[in-house]
Design a protein that fits this description.
The complex is a heterodimer of chains A (160) and B (420).
Chain A: H1 2-7, H2 10-17, E1 30-36, E2 41-50, E3 53-62, H3 65-78, H4 83-97, H5 126-141, E4 146-147, E5 151-152, H6 155-159
Parallel strand pairs in A: 1-4, 1-5
Antiparallel strand pairs in A: 1-2, 2-3
Chain B: H1 3-10, H2 19-23, E1 32-33, E2 36-37, E3 39-40, H3 51-64, H4 74-93, E4 102-105, H5 108-123, E5 129-133, H6 142-151, E6 154-158, H7 168-174, E7 179-185, H8 197-205, E8 211-214, H9 226-229, E9 233-237, E10 248-252, H10 254-259, E11 270-273, E12 278-280, H11 294-310, H12 312-331, E13 336-339, E14 348-353, H13 358-367, E15 370-371, E16 373-375, H14 380-385, E17 391-395, H15 402-418
Parallel strand pairs in B: 3-15, 5-6, 5-7, 7-8, 8-9
Antiparallel strand pairs in B: 1-2, 4-10, 9-10, 11-12, 13-14, 14-17, 16-17
Helix pairs in contact in B: 3-11, 4-11, 5-6, 12-15, 13-15
The chains are: A alpha/beta (160), B alpha/beta (420).
């Protein structure tokens, strides 16, 4: 069961039970929905952008432990970051959960997010871990303020 | 000779089902997954294949491969005979009146699409209505939505109750002279409900409305007699009934199939072609354009032989016992809620566990070597009806054992421990 413990680390279980920033952000100027059609996971992400900086972020939705913990830890990680910094983190995170980046030996900006490295052993769960990140990217890329069209994790099929 | 045949021949254990002999016929069941014996509880997604089916596909390519209906040479005739013999086996399996009422398709999905596009083109017009039910698989929803959009018809949905049973009285009220076809599942993939299709067919026929049954789940678990049911169309898939993937069957009553236009054009579906006019081939070939899935059809024929040798009645009785056991054992675990409690049920145990997402249950079980489905089971409206984002689904077949249900129970307990 060693592998299972690696996926469901205590920190992940904790964020699943008590997700951080799990709220509708009243001050948000971006709102974005993300959806994982495979398992029905759904997330609404609220962003307060000031220029290029993510000033505040919150989320709501329903999903599995991996997707919920990932969203929770993502919100903590990107708060105060610029869009370019967030994009770098997304890229590194995505490569890590797919097994293309060894977060222990290669340089990266993932910090606490490294805890999701165990996902690489579970290809079916890559989408769960990256749903919130896809949603964040879509929210950042929205032109101006408002509500973007919902994004899905379906492109993962082609990437995997 | 398959184990099941030997059992039958020796007349032993007629009342008791010797599942351990049956399991010998399925090589995949002997393997280990993550260091544990495989517990395969995902037969509603696809069934495992007995050795006889695997052998038939292999020997087709090793000894019989040629195109059908074309060659004068030995191999082509051999392949054609095997391919057409399988059609007869399938005809008998569902008790169709005529062999030409058996159309080979890629699966149930293609069969339903064929009827939607072909019957729909001819008989469904603006303002007409199509009736489906609230517990359909996406494959019996989307083809009708597409047709409705094309022909400006209206899709209507028979509601279900909290146990996952269809509301027949509501259905009776929905019937009117604008209804052009009723399409319902015979056995729900998400809830396990056995739908009272005979009653539905009687009611629809009393208003001259034809009925299509989605038999993808029912074909391997219930004895299907299309003449006794009096359904107009019956669509099912080979891979859910011990046959290969990529082959399926659409049964249609002759008079409907005769009156319907072909959907795919090409070779094999014509009797003569000029640039001015093409004359279509007779049934069933009118609906079978192009080189078909020959080894699939032959494999499905062997799967039918195999299921017959075990006996659908005995399969149904054993699976019923197994489902009752699973319902009791899994239902007794604190925090588990079973979704779908129809009085008439077969082979599907959909459930949720308080505080744990089905996807996480699926991953924990997988580590125990237990294969279940976690998700919406291609039936999102059903999930919405029961207000759950997804469920975990253990689906049973006649090669499963009570010990495997016990392993599932242990696995679910383990998931509860991990997430407690």
């Amino acid at each position: 069961m060693a592998e299972l413990n690696e996926l469901y680390q205590q920190v992940i279980l904790d964020h699943n039970k008590k997700p951080r920033n799990f709220k509708r952000l009243e001050t948000a100027n971006r709102e974005q929905e993300g959806y994982n059609p495979l398992c029905g996971d759904q997330i609404t992400l609220y962003l307060l952008m000031e220029g290029d900086v993510i000033k505040d972020v919150g989320f709501q939705g329903s999903g599995c432990a991996i997707s919920k913990a990932s969203a929770s830890m993502m919100t903590a990680a990107v708060k105060g970051k610029t869009r370019d910094e967030a994009e770098v983190m997304f890229d590194e995170f995505h490569r890590m959960v797919k097994g293309d980046l060894d977060a222990e030996s290669e340089q990266n900006h993932l910090g606490r997010l490294k805890i999701f490295a165990g996902v690489r052993e579970y290809p079916a769960r890559v989408k769960c871990a990256s749903l919130s990140w896809h949603t964040l990217r879509a929210a950042i890329e929205q032109k101006g303020e408002g509500h973007g069209e919902f994004v899905t994790t379906e492109a993962e099929h082609r990437q995997d | 000779m398959p184990a099941a045949l030997e059992v039958e021949a020796k007349g032993m254990r007629t009342s008791q089902f010797d599942v351990h002999r049956i399991r010998e016929d399925f090589p995949i069941l002997k393997q280990q997954v993550h260091g544990r014996p495989l517990v395969y509880l995902d037969s509603a997604a696809t069934s495992q294949k007995p050795q006889v089916v695997i052998d038939a596909i292999k020997s087709y390519y090793a000894e019989q491969n040629a195109n059908v209906h074309r060659g004068v040479h030995y191999l082509s005739q051999l392949a054609t005979r095997e391919y057409e013999d399988a059609r007869v086996k399938i005809q008998r399996f569902i008790n169709a009146a005529e062999t030409h009422e058996i159309i080979y398709t890629r699966g149930a999905t293609e069969g339903i699409n064929l009827v939607a596009q072909s019957y729909g083109r001819k008989f469904v017009h603006e303002g007409d209505e199509i009736i489906i039910s609230a517990m359909e698989h996406h494959s019996n929803i989307v083809p009708w939505q597409m047709l409705c959009e094309q022909n400006r018809a209206k899709l209507r949905v028979i509601p279900i109750n909290d146990d996952g049973e269809l509301l027949i009285e509501e259905f009776a009220r929905m019937l009117n002279r604008n209804v052009k076809i009723v399409a319902v599942t015979h056995l729900s993939n998400a809830l396990g409900t056995i739908v009272p299709v005979k009653r539905i067919i009687e009611l629809a026929h009393s208003q001259d409305v034809p009925v299509l049954l989605d038999g993808a789940q029912a074909a391997p678990h219930l004895k299907v007699d299309v003449r006794e049911l009096d359904c107009d169309f019956y669509a099912f898939s080979g891979h859910k009934m011990c046959g290969p993937t990529g082959i399926g069957v659409l049964y249609g009553k002759s008079h409907w199939l005769e009156s319907m236009p072909p959907v795919l054009g090409g070779g094999d579906m014509i009797s003569s072609v000029t640039f001015e006019k093409t004359t279509y081939n007779s049934l069933p070939y009118k609906f079978e354009a192009g080189t078909p899935n020959i080894e699939g059809a032959i494999g499905l024929g062997v799967a039918v032989d195999y299921l017959n040798s075990v006996g659908l009645d005995r399969i149904a009785a054993y699976e019923h016992e197994l489902l009752d056991y699973a319902t009791e054992v899994i239902g007794a675990i604190p925090g588990v809620k079973i979704v779908g409690a129809a009085r008439e049920k077969s082979c599907v145990l959909s459930f949720t566990v308080d505080g744990i997402h089905p996807h996480d249950i699926g991953t924990v079980l997988d580590q125990e070597g237990i294969a279940v489905r976690a998700g919406h089971h291609c039936a999102q409206p059903v999930m919405k009806r029961f207000d759950v984002p997804a469920t975990a689904r253990a689906s049973l077949a006649f090669y499963n054992t009570k010990e495997e249900i016990d392993a599932l129970a242990v696995g679910v307990q383990k998931a509860i421990e991990v997430f407690s």
